[in-house]
Write a structure and sequence with these properties.
about 425 residues, mainly beta, Pectate Lyase C-like, 29-stranded parallel sheet, cell wall biogenesis/degradation
């Protein structure tokens, strides 16, 4: 191939410079070039789940998916694992394991729906679809992943306080993946969280549509944990919990052009629970739009924890009717009664809030509830303009304690 290709190039150059070839010769050389290149294009295999017994008729299709995956995973050619469009496939909890062929793409054109039988989750109540130990995986196609979450929500202790507080499955989890691409996928009605990136590196996610009702419990949209070099862009999240949550072990994360709401906003944390040491750094949230959310941009940690949340920037953000637009809480407590005071905390430092504007329905638009022992340090607020929603022109304020803060440009309301 190498010799043939370069011979064609050489002949073309000679014909051009010496004018020794006729028009017909030029056309013949082009034909030869196309033929040679066509014969040496990488072969693309398509592994269709229907060919392995998937019926899409309401019965369980898990075995067909596993058999198709094994075939695609072990292929030496560039391979597409295909879930056809205009069909609904039902799956029990399933794990797509690697390592696999590094030229593997998962094409979800149709709908994948979770089993409606809770007994199917007895071996693992925390996961539904898992992709693990994979390199260079691409998941795309414009299809839908439906977690069938309503059967779980009605039994949540947050909905029915007579029920025990137990976990439910995350709809889609990527764990121990590198060079991952997730594009143009819709995830809806998860059992608990929609999408988790866990212990993964070099992740690019774009054009995601993540949707659940505003009152669905614990349905975080995109959850990033223990992962490095993650970019999430051009996505819409409407849910009942955090639109994006970033927790321990995550660094070099970019969240850009996210539309969030309803939901609980964009959160770093919680960190430091049960006196743990947690670390989050180098986070950028840019060009987000938040509407009718409980929080805007939030960093929260438990008393008694340790570690740090540092080098975090929130920039170019628009908020509409957000209850708590900017909030940092080093004294987070998920109890009705007051938590006992402790003297260690996750250190918050080098936080930048820049070009944030919008409206709130709360009296307190900016809140820094920081630790006396480990105060929030090196906080910059630049060009922040927050007003009351609608015709409500009541007083609005910033509540700031134990924070070392500087400002640039107009900042309203302002910490006193």
């Amino acid at each position: 191939m190498y010799l043939h290709k370069h011979l064609v190039i050489l002949l073309t150059i000679l014909c051009s410079t010496l004018s020794c070839c006729s028009y017909k010769d030029h056309q013949n050389i082009k034909t030869i070039t196309r033929t040679l290149l066509a014969h040496h294009q990488p072969k693309l295999r398509r592994v269709n789940v229907d060919h392995y017994g998937a019926n899409a008729n309401g019965t369980d299709d898990s075995m067909a998916f596993i058999q198709a995956w094994d075939n695609a995973c072990n292929s030496s050619d560039a391979t597409e694992f295909v879930v056809p469009k205009n069909k609904v496939y039902h799956l029990k909890p399933i794990t797509f394991s690697g390592p696999c062929n590094p030229k593997l793409r998962v094409k979800v054109y149709g709908t994948i729906k979770a089993s409606s039988h809770k007994t199917d989750y007895e071996e693992d109540r925390r996961h539904w679809i898992v992709f693990e130990d994979l390199d260079n995986l691409v998941v795309e196609g414009g299809g839908t992943i439906n977690g069938n979450g309503r059967i779980w929500w009605i039994k949540s202790c947050k909905v029915d306080q007579t029920q025990p507080c137990i976990g439910a499955p995350t709809a889609v989890t990527f764990t121990n993946c590198t060079n991952l691409r997730v594009n143009n996928i819709r995830i809806k009605n998860p059992q608990q969280m929609h999408l988790t990136f866990h212990n993964s590196r070099n992740v690019r996610a774009s054009n995601l549509r993540i949707i659940a009702p505003a009152k669905s419990p614990n349905t975080d949209g995109i959850h990033i944990t223990g992962s490095q070099s993650v970019r999430v862009i051009n996505s819409i999240v409407k849910t009942g919990d955090d639109c994006v949550s970033i927790v321990d072990g995550s660094t070099n994360v970019v969240i850009r052009k996210i539309t969030c709401g309803p939901g609980h906003g964009i959160s770093i944390g919680s960190l430091g629970k049960n006196n743990s040491e947690d670390q989050v750094s180098n986070i950028l949230v840019d060009q987000a739009i938040l509407s009718n959310t409980t929080n805007g941009v939030r960093i929260k940690s438990w008393q008694g924890g340790s570690g740090y949340a540092r080098n975090i920037r929130f920039e170019n953000i628009i908020m509409h009717n957000v209850s708590n637009p900017i909030i940092v809480n080093q004294n987070y407590c998920d109890r009705k009664e007051k938590c006992p005071e402790q003297y260690s905390a996750v250190q918050m430092q080098n936080l930048v809030y820049r070009n944030i504007k919008g409206t709130t329905n709360s009296e307190v638009a900016i809140k820094f509830d920081c630790s006396q022992t480990f105060p929030c340090k090196a906080i910059l607020m630049e060009n922040i303009v927050l007003n009351r929603e609608g015709d409500d022109q009541g007083d609005m304020k910033a509540a700031c304690s134990n924070v070392m803060l500087s400002t640039l440009g107009k900042v309203t309301p302002r910490c006193e």
